[in-house]
Write a structure and sequence with these properties.
There is one protein chain. The chain is an alpha/beta fold. The protein has 11 helices and 10 strands. The protein has one domain: TIM Barrel. It has an 8-stranded parallel β-barrel with strand order 1-2-3-4-5-6-7-8, surrounded by 4 helices. A two-stranded antiparallel sheet has the order 9-10. The protein is globular and about 50 Å long. The two termini are 25 Å apart.
Length: 357
């Protein structure tokens, strides 16, 4: 989810959802072995049971507006140890960790990632894993890639090779997600680039669970254009869901004209429910036909919608996803869509109940 992107109204119907610092190249930090790896006993999985790996993600929440901001804190969220404690104690199974690596990697070969930023990511992953939370680590807001795929391909792959090498020793409860919401890029180009990223990761992580996505902001309607390596069964497919967009993004400051939608409600009437179930059935059919599990990596309604409508919509989407065997991760923890109110240090009870009844 982009918090600072302006979207022309003309493009909204096609959407399903939804200052780089140059680091002087240096020797890449060594691979890490997770300190609790020998203590944790993650659920054993058959050699290629991606459906079991997906089920283990269960019910999750995105730690949004923090590490995917140009600098952590610029969008109002700096992660704290208490965030992970609260999420685990509430009963969530996983977190998704949106991360803007492109703001912390050199722009010239070998595209070295800032060691201090890597240590910050180490800390966040360890905070989650030590509390028995599964972690989805992605590349988020790599806008340069989708504006110039050919020019950024080498950097994109180099970033993934560094990430993969560093965390090769971590338990399989750490998942890698290739990229967040590809846009402005054709399906054929993205299929080729995503496959290259999978191959780059497999050099050091042959058994890591990977999460892959279609184009058009991870639209369920573009699942049909997704092409995956048939010989790699350790893949989970994701899409994002923010429909009806005029409801979920009413008043969103980064969406042009969104103030016109203020006051939109979602009452769970027959037509509204049928629209959601139609969309999720579409994704579920693709999953059955292709033998791939589905992770609903983002869904949520912005805080300017009324709470009753937000809770109804959130609960309905979550239960319908679960009914179709999909794991999910709500967008997000404690910013504009937040299930937690950081100012009052309290959960927003209707949303928490909608997610974890």
């Amino acid at each position: 989810m982009s918090q600072l992107r302006t979207i022309p109204l003309a493009t909204l119907a096609a959407l399903n959802l939804t200052a780089c610092r140059i680091v002087t190249p240096a020797a890449a930090p060594p691979a890490m072995t997770h300190p609790t790896a020998s203590l944790r006993q993650p659920m054993p999985l058959p050699a290629a049971d991606a459906f079991a790996a997906n089920a283990r993600l269960g019910r999750g929440v995105n730690l949004g507006n923090a590490l995917e901001a140009p600098r952590e804190g610029e969008w109002g969220v700096t992660l704290e140890e208490n965030d992970f404690r609260l999420i685990a104690e509430a009963g969530f199974d996983s977190i998704r960790l949106p991360t803007r690596w492109s703001a912390h990697a050199a722009t010239e070969p070998p595209y070295t990632i800032d060691p201090a930023f890597l240590k910050r990511i180490d800390w966040a992953i360890d905070q989650a894993l030590s509390r028995e939370l599964n972690v989805v680590l992605n590349i988020h807001h790599y806008d340069e890639l989708f504006k110039d795929a050919q020019g950024q391909e080498a950097r994109f792959l180099a970033i993934w090779r560094q990430i993969a090498a560093r965390y090769a020793g971590y338990p399989d409860t750490l998942y890698f997600e290739i990229a967040n919401e590809p846009y402005n890029i054709g399906a054929a180009t993205w299929n080729r680039m995503q496959t290259k990223a999978i191959q780059a990761i497999r050099e050091t992580n042959p058994a890591r669970w990977l999460i892959v996505t279609p184009v058009d902001w991870s639209s369920h309607r573009r699942l049909q254009d997704l092409q995956l390596p048939a010989d790699d069964q350790r893949l989970i497919v994701t899409f994002h869901y923010y429909l009806p967009f005029e409801f979920t993004h009413q008043g969103a400051e980064w969406v042009a004209g969104a103030d016109k939608w203020l006051g939109r409600k979602w009452s769970a009437n027959t037509s509204e429910r049928q629209s959601v179930t139609f969309d999720l059935d579409w994704a579920a059919k693709w999953a059955r036909d292709n033998g791939r599990p589905i992770y609903l990596g983002e869904f949520g309604a912005y805080g300017k919608a009324d709470m009753d409508s937000r809770a109804l919509w959130t609960a309905f989407v979550a239960r319908q996803a679960e009914h179709r065997g999909m794991s999910w991760s709500y967008w997000e923890f404690r910013a504009g869509f937040g299930v937690y109110d950081y100012a009052t240090q309290q959960w927003r009870a209707p949303l928490l109940e909608a997610l974890l009844p």
